Amino acid sequence: MMQGIYANIIIDRSIDRLDRTFQYRIPEALRGQLLAGMPVIVPFGQGNRETFGYVLEVTDEAEFEPSKMKEILRIAEKGAGAENLQIRLAAWMKHTYGSTMIAALRTVIPVKQKVRAVEKRDLWPGLSPERLAFQIAAYERRHLDKRVRFLTDLAKRAPIPYEEATGTYGLTPAMVRDMENKGILVSKKETQYRNPVSADSALQKHVVLSSEQQRIADEILSDYRSGHPGRYLIHGITGSGKTEVYMEIIEGVLRMGKEVIVLIPEIALTYQTVSRFAGRFGDRVSVLHSGLSMGERYDQCERARRGEISVMIGPRSALFTPFQNLGLIVMDEEHENSYKSESIPKYHAREAASELASYVGAGVVYGSATPSLEAYEKARRGEWRLYTLKERLTGGTLPKVYIEDLRKELRRGNRSIFSERLDRMMEERLNRNEQIMLFLNRRGYAGFVSCRACGHVMKCPHCDVSLSQHRGGRLICHYCGYEEPAVTLCPSCGSKYILGFRAGTEQIEEAVRKRFPASRILRMDADTTRSKNSYEAILKQFAHHEADILIGTQMIVKGHDFPNVTLVGILAADLSLHANDYRASERTFQLLTQAAGRAGRGEKPGEVVIQTYQPDHHSIIHAAAQDYEGFFEEEMTYRSLMGYPPSAHMVAVLVLSSKETVAKALAEDLAALTKESDKPVAVIGPAGAGIGKINDVYRYVFYVKASAYDDLIFVKDRLEAYLDRKGRGSESVQFDFDPLNAY
Ligand code: ADP
Ligand code: ZN
Ligand code: ZN
């Protein structure tokens, strides 16, 4: 039993290296009261000045001679504003997701970098006009032409920026220095924190909210007035006016003198989106995105800390903006996978946002066209308030959707990748000079094997997820490690057309070229978008109708509106349906719904063709009908039957080592230890991970399921304690709670 005699304390978050901690003794009176993240007052430095610090860790191990250790004075009443919140959030993350405190702190605290603030330097005349004229004449006599030209202009239109003097006028830094030394020039420096946002008033539209939109905003704002902002989910298709509702609420919250964080997935953080916010809220808006350098990101956080801005827009990490008076977090496209961190701590911004908001009594508004099961389930249980926006305000009608059974095509002798219907419709569109999008949803695709004759998919008998084909044809379950030899005949119908699914966008491009040689084609996938900006460039070309057909992976379903697209073809819905993890159906439903939503955005009605070997699958049927609730009901039944989140919880324990035997043995030890626990948990595995080795590091994984999240935390803590006792070698262990993908 740990007594907790010593505490490791960080003194000041601005110390460049956060892992610099100081150890203090915990006085008797405070033993058992200190937790990671708590603010404390300690004597610091030679003069033992009372200094603010945060508890990182409580321990029994003295790092140096205990008799020389100072004692903590007391628990601080209050932390230092935003800092306190961040550290508390870090402590929560450590507890909830498994991580060291340092890694959690590094996640939530903007890294302080040598700030290279952009310095604006202006040059002014240092002399009176008469004496300046005299000086110019003197330089003329000495034929110092550059100086003459520069000073002559300076006399007319001071100040001139330094860059212009050294650029256009061709002065060298030495010449400027020389004239400065002689008092001919004076330079004035101004430190500027660059604002990466520029408001584009052209994008500012004044809309009158529909009564439904207004009602949502009013209700939420009235919760604020009564002092109890809550959690809200706005479910509405793209174009149903969610963003306008967010902005209305934001405006209300800003009026109350509070600040707002708006989370938007990186891919949707386009110029248009940001400008819409900037157009409405002016220069109180800033943005964090991956295009900014660390220094620039830090600048923006500093501006937020100082209260110079009050709305921060950005992806996942914008959540950690150190506002002093946070009132609202908006999380658009709440279902996006990019909201989950892939590095430790593997937190989900959906949960972290709610946690952070609870510290300061802020509200959280989530929005999505296809909410995650987690979110919708909370709304259904009444934890969050649900609002639904049903109409599309951008005009256009919902497209007509056809499901094409590829098994029938095979029976009819059609071996092309286009069903008869899709083929015919493409021809029509090309004749009418309308545009087509062909979509291959490879997301999550992990080499499943299926029967082209009957649609049967090889699945794990224990986990009900698709098996992945490995070298030599062996089929493996990425959850439990179950294995089967290669199949040659379909176990369901005996057909020999049971094979792995090979599908790439290049093959599709080839097929289209062969079938429609005159068509103009653009392809968008990981290969064609490798260079910066190529993603935007391809979309722009397509928007300007420089191509008839856009072929792409899931990348094409987001963003831009293409009013001339009247046909969307989804070539093989099965690809993502048979990903090897329990979220495959949900992801497929989301992708199909989004893809279908691409058609008929303009005046002309749109049509969608979904090709599949499993036309009866609930993801496909409900996506075709744009029936979210129908999908939710069926999918939740499956999740609760199998004990998958959100009905229950699951943690992946990933063990990494450069030695395979070590990784395997440790995974087995940890799994055995987990099984010993008296909590109601189930252990699946361990098994080699789907990608068994990355950069020469071997990966073993096992999964633990439980109906209560806390039981998984208990397991995690126990494993961590075991690892601490054992002393960690080269191997490392990572936790991923409610993982979005199989390992
Ligand atoms: P979402 O965020 O759900 O995709 P937006 O808020 O972006 O929807 O709205 C889609 C389009 O409809 C935008 O161009 C927006 O300006 C417009 N719009 C939204 N609400 C209204 C309204 N009440 N009246 C007219 N146009 C609106
Ligand atoms: Zn079959
Ligand atoms: Zn399995």
Q: Number of helical segments? A: 22
Helix content: 25-40%
Largest sheet: 7 strands, parallel
Q: Write out the distinct hetero groups bound to the structure.
A: adenosine-5'-diphosphate, zinc ion
Provide the gyration radius in Å: 30 Å
Low-pLDDT parts are none
End-to-end distance: 35 Å
- Strand % is 15-25%
Secondary-structure class: alpha/beta
Strand order of the largest sheet: 11-12-10-13-14-9-15
The count of strands amounts to 30
Mean pLDDT: 87
How would the global form be characterised? globular
Could you describe the 3D structure shown?
- There is one protein chain.
- It is built from 22 helices and 30 strands.
- With 743 residues, it is α/β, with parallel strands linked by helices.
- The longest helix is centred in the C-terminal third of the chain and has 18 residues, at 709-726.
- It is globular.
- Bound molecules: adenosine-5'-diphosphate and zinc ion (2 copies).
- One zinc ion binds next to loops.
Helix and strand arrangement:
Elements: E1 6-10, E2 22-25, E3 39-44, E4 49-59, E5 74-75, H1 82-97, H2 101-108, E6 118-125, H3 129-141, H4 145-157, E7 160-161, H5 162-166, H6 173-181, E8 185-192, H7 211-225, E9 231-236, H8 242-255, E10 259-263, H9 271-281, E11 285-287, H10 294-305, E12 311-314, E13 326-331, H11 349-360, E14 363-368, H12 373-380, E15 385-389, E16 400-405, H13 406-411, H14 420-431, E17 435-439, E18 449-451, E19 468-469, E20 475-476, E21 483-484, E22 498-500, H15 505-515, E23 521-524, H16 534-543, E24 549-552, E25 565-570, H17 574-577, H18 584-596, E26 607-612, H19 618-624, H20 628-642, E27 649-657, H21 660-676, E28 681-694, E29 697-706, H22 709-726, E30 732-737
Parallel strand pairs: 9-14, 9-15, 10-12, 10-13, 11-12, 13-14, 16-26, 17-24, 17-25, 23-24, 25-26
Antiparallel strand pairs: 1-2, 1-4, 3-4, 3-5, 6-7, 6-8, 18-22, 19-20, 20-21, 27-29, 27-30, 28-29
Helix pairs in contact: 1-2, 1-11, 3-4, 7-8, 18-19, 19-20
The structure holds adenosine-5'-diphosphate and zinc ion (ZN) (2 copies).
Residues 451, 453-454, 456, 490, 492-493, 495 line the site of one zinc ion (ZN).
